[in-house]
Amino acid sequence: MKIINIVTQMEGGGAQSAAIRLSQGLVDRGYQVETWFLYLKRPTYLGRTGVRVLLGHPPRHFGDIFLIFIRLMRNLKRKSPDAVITFTHYANILGQLAAWFSGIQCRVASQRNPSWSYPWVARRVDWLLGTLGLYKENIMVSEAVKLSFRGYPAAYRRGGCVVHNGIQFQPSFLGQKQSRTLFSLPINFPLVVTIGRLALQKNQALLIRSLPLLPGVHLAIAGDGELLYELQKEAQELGVRDRVHFLGEILPSDVKDLLNAADIFAMPSRFEGLSNAILEAIGAGVPVIASDIPSQIEVLGMGNQMPCGVLVPPDELPAWVNVIQQLCYDKKLRQEFSKRAKARSAEFTVKKMIAGFERAILRAKG
């Protein structure tokens, strides 16, 4: 069976890494799979077997979007896959339309963020395509994302099911000091690590603002994005630039070593579908502090008696400072959260993710 996974842009984001992991898992199960990115934002996966980019730069005008759609149609007709799976809202729109026009019957969309976070036009078009039945199956990355579509028509929600992201965490073989040296991070200071695109959604500014109240604590930020200069400027103005380490976008294979360097993993996002970075952090057994948004409540298991992380409102700076300070200087508490995190990560495996997508493919085939 031939499957094409379609993702909006190539970069080191969560949807992209999930699509790549899904592709490899399906290949291991005997499927023929390719992953197509509509356009190149950063060259994270260039050169990988089965990976294709349709446009070498972000779209600059409507003509570029039309060109992407034409290339999608041409390549789908040439490859004639048995199934198409799309990731993120723009890929859902262009990929599902192109698959429908190309006569591909097995079409699976996947929603990676809450519906209200989509740009207005994308939200309306997605609503229309899903309601008209272009999505034979519509995978939601979390229960929180599924809940965000509760006001949509029954015809849209009919094909909806939850398939969590999955990780297959490979532990670092380095010691913590070696990991810190690898990223030019300080050896003998408490270290908070966060991973994510530098954007308002990810809210890294909150962590930078906490540092003046946390003397001696360092922050490592892995990721790239439109707020790089603004975040660097804020760190400079607050007098903490020497304690904020901007690492840029790191390779997926290096994430395990960066997490190994951390005392705490922090994710103060304003919204998420289901953060791969948090899944990797709990897989590594790193104590997690996260914003108390629905998907992160879902991941950290806060309904259980033994949560594997601490939830804090995304804009309550004093609360973040208190929790970071407590975890940085309480080794026994970090060890307890580490043990809980590793146990919780067993709920989010690549095997479960692949099985969920495979069931959706079979249902979409009818």
Could you describe the 3D structure shown?
- The longest helix has 18 residues, at 62-79.
- Helix 8 (204-210) links the parallel strand 8 (191-195) and strand 9 (218-222).
- The strands form 2 sheets. Strands 3-2-1-4-5-6-7 form a 7-stranded parallel sheet, sandwiched between helices.
- By secondary structure, it is of the alpha/beta class.
- The chain has 15 helices and 13 strands.
- Helix content is 43%, strand content 18%.
- It has 2 domains: 2-166 and 349-365, Rossmann fold (3-Layer(aba) Sandwich); 176-345, 3-Layer(aba) Sandwich (Rossmann fold), CATH 3.40.50.
- It is globular, with a radius of gyration of 21 Å.
Short description:
The chain has 15 helices and 13 strands. The protein is an alpha/beta fold.
- Look up the CATH topology of the largest domain: Rossmann fold
| Overall 3D form | globular
Termini separation? 15 Å
Count of individual domains: 2
Into which percent range does the helicity of residues fall? 40-55%
CATH C-level name of the largest domain: Alpha Beta
- Give the helix/strand class: alpha/beta
The count of helical stretches stands at 15
Main sheet: which strands, in order across? 3-2-1-4-5-6-7
> What string gives the helices and strands in order?
EHEEHEHEHEHHEHEHEHEHEHEHEHHH
Task: Tell me the layout of helices and strands.
Layout: E1 2-10, H1 14-28, E2 32-40, E3 51-53, H2 62-79, E4 83-87, H3 89-101, E5 106-111, H4 120-132, E6 137-140, H5 143-148, H6 154-157, E7 160-162, H7 176-182, E8 191-195, H8 204-210, E9 218-222, H9 228-237, E10 244-248, H10 255-261, E11 264-267, H11 276-283, E12 288-291, H12 294-300, E13 309-312, H13 317-328, H14 331-345, H15 350-365
Parallel strand pairs: 1-2, 1-4, 2-3, 4-5, 5-6, 6-7, 8-9, 8-11, 9-10, 11-12, 12-13
